[in-house]
Design goal:
This protein has 116 residues and is α+β, with helices and mostly antiparallel strands. The protein is built from 3 helices and 5 strands. The strands form 2 sheets. The protein has a 3-stranded antiparallel β-sheet, with no helix packed on it. The protein has a two-stranded antiparallel ribbon with strand order 1-4.
């Protein structure tokens, strides 16, 4: 076996002066990508109550209930959601959308259940 002495020195010196490939999160900030799948937003005024989003959700994270004449309420469990975007793409009135809020770390699972 040949001995390769001195080959690592240029690589080590290069990495000593270069910038790191990662950022110091949360201090260094966060880069928002345009199509990030964060929390689900629900627009009750455009919802027609067809419940297609409920049927298409593979985990059952969305429940649409009628609270009045043509008025609907959504219960979204973000701790159950797998962020597949099936509900967003299947809504005919685009009442569901993703927000760029992706930091969902909480101490209680109950706080991830939203009623809109």
């Amino acid at each position: 076996m040949k001995k390769r002495s001195g080959k690592i020195l240029p690589v080590a010196l290069k990495h000593l002066v270069s910038h790191p490939a990662t950022v110091s999160y949360p201090v260094g900030g966060k880069e928002q990508f345009p199509k990030v799948r964060g929390m689900i937003a629900y627009d009750a005024e455009t919802c027609i109550g067809c419940s297609i989003c409920m049927r298409d959700c593979p985990t059952g994270a969305i429940v649409i209930e009628e609270v009045g004449t043509k008025e609907f309420k959504a219960t979204i469990e973000m701790d159950v959601c797998i962020f597949c975007a099936q509900c967003v793409s299947s809504c005919p009135k685009k009442s569901l959308s993703y927000t760029p809020e992706f930091e969902l770390a909480v101490l209680s699972r109950a706080s991830l259940k939203t009623e809109i």
